[in-house]
Amino acid sequence: xxxxxxxxxxxxxxxxxxxxxxxxxxxxxxxxxxxxxxxxxxxxxxxxxxxxxxxxxxxxxxxxxxxxxxxxxxxxxxxxxxxxxxxxxxxxxxxxxxxxxxxxxxxxxxxxxxxxxxxxxxxxxxxxxxxxxxxxxxxxxxxxxxxxxxxxxxxxxxxxxxxxxxxxxxxxxxxxxxxxxxxxxxxxxxxxxxxxxxxxxxxxxxxxxxxxxxxxxxxxxxxxxxxxxxxx
Length: 232
Prior knowledge:
This protein is mostly helical. The chain has 11 helices and no strands.
């Protein structure tokens, strides 16, 4: 597989996933994704994609063609449509764009009562949990804590409201729920470490037709805030 460069296949398939999910062209831009794919590399992509059940989609195509350019568009589209979590991608991203701006604006104000590192952990979990098996039970618990429907997008919006209301009790309950899932923690820690090791900052949003925050920028800001505070 090393000779065939999994990263090249993933980069060619990424735009098809976006289109099949109904994401706008400016959301999760290709140029940023391609840079991250190159830096993470084949082994890193496999490790992160296996729990998402995305790696098997690409590997199946690799077995049928010598190079990504030889795969017809219809085959890419069919492979992406078979991804079980595809219908959830657009509403989850839309909810994060809705919530991330207010969260970013409130970091300085909520820092005296809410640990930014904890919020960073929660935001990371809620962004990726809808797309891995380990995240299903966790999302059910968080939905119950927030009193929201068991919908990833609704959970994200409910979490944004909890932070905005400085609901420390609810946020601590969510934190305890997250920390007890060891399988989730292992995968999330691996993802975070690989992304933090990249020279460029991953972008969720590039140029948007309406004001929208960069959720990865939000995570990085919160991590730096938390690290700086803990070192004092």
